[in-house]
Amino acid sequence: MQTALVTGASTGIGLATAVHLARHRFHVFAGVRDPEGAVELHAAIREMARSVDWEDGCRPVTVVWLDVCDEASIAAAVAEIGRVDVLVNNAGIGGGGQPVETASIEIGKRVFDTNYWGAVRMVQAVLPAMREARQGTIVNITSMLGLFTLGSGAHYAASKHALEAASEVLAQETALFGVRVAMVEPGVILTPIFSKKIEAVCEDSPYHFSRRRLKAFFEAQMGSGTLPTAVAETVLHAIRTDAPQLRYLVGPDAVALAAGRAAVSDEEWIADFAIADDEAFFDRMAQRFGLDLWRKPATPETEA
Q1: How far is 185 from 159, CA to CA, in rounded Å?
Q2: Residue 156 falls in the annotated catalytic set
Q3: Per-residue pLDDT in tens (0 to 9) along the chain, 304 residues
């Protein structure tokens, strides 16, 4: 029986991944900062217990206290679990949607402490045993915003860019030891991290256009975003495939945006953001990516 440790498992992608791996014969340890408050996770575990024949290969999900920003918590969790065959670094927080000029440094530090340093702490805790055993898998949940950027999203995108770089380096360093490293790069996923509205746009800010466009992008995706189960399925594939990749995009928005950004020069990309009119900017983005990702799909009510 393989053991998997999933961080940030109380809701969203982490919860879906924990349950999905359990249903596919992993003994899963679901790391959460507040075990008693992880209501959705406990409900999912109870539902799985009722609906699955445990003798048919489904493994239990064990909830463990794990704060990726707390080294004592990490050490205690890993000691409780013992050998970890698969680490899924999912714990993450958003960045507030502020332009660089006015972005809070303290918020930026918290974002990096969770999204980047938290993942590094987890790797350092489990990798020595994987290296000695010459086997194991580390899956880092990054983001499409680890591949390119959007205005007013510097802290979050920077943390994910950093995790992408560290993951690629880690893959190089561990290849000789039989340890697999993969990055799963979701687009907008229907989870609490994106369901929280971006702060209201202050029209007095010189960057109000940038924040307004970022807000429009995420609100447009919330009507048709990808479900967390799609990420969970990709994580399982990354673990078990015989033809492993370093990167796995998840969601039509992530695929379209990554391909479209790669097809234009840096100078063309920056020039697009100098378009003053929102509708003209949205049109240019739709042309670039082949999808209208900045405007909500029309409904009978909006068409009337």
Answers
A1: 13
A2: yes
A3: 899 999 999 999 999 999 999 999 999 999 999 999 999 999 999 998 888 776 666 678 999 999 999 999 999 999 999 999 999 999 999 987 889 999 999 999 999 999 999 999 999 999 999 999 999 999 999 999 999 999 999 999 999 999 999 999 999 999 999 999 999 999 999 886 654 444 555 668 899 999 999 989 988 988 777 999 999 999 999 999 999 999 999 999 999 999 999 999 999 999 999 999 999 999 999 999 999 999 988 655 544 3
Which tokens hold the place of 233? 């399925």
Q: What beta strand segments (E) does the chain contain?
A: 2-6, 26-32, 61-65, 86-89, 136-141, 179-186, 247-250
Q: What CATH fold (topology level) applies to the domain 2-196+226-252?
A: Rossmann fold (3.40.50)
| Domain boundaries of the chain, sorted by first residue | 2-196+226-252
Spell out a b/e string for 252-272, using b for 16 or more CB atoms within 10 Å of the CB, else e. Answer: bbbbbbbebbeeeeeeeeeee
User: Which of 42, 140, 121 lies closest to 76, judged by CA?
Assistant: 121
Half-sphere exposure of 105 (CA within 13 A, CB side): 0
The tokens of 14 are what? Answer: 């982490």
Which of 5, 174, 177, 20 minimizes the C-alpha distance to 79?
Answer: 5
Locus of tokens 């660089």? 100
**Alpha carbon distance 273, 288 (integer Å):** 13
Nearest one of 12, 32, 232 to 139, comparing CA atoms: 232
* pTM of the predicted structure, to 2 decimals: 0.94
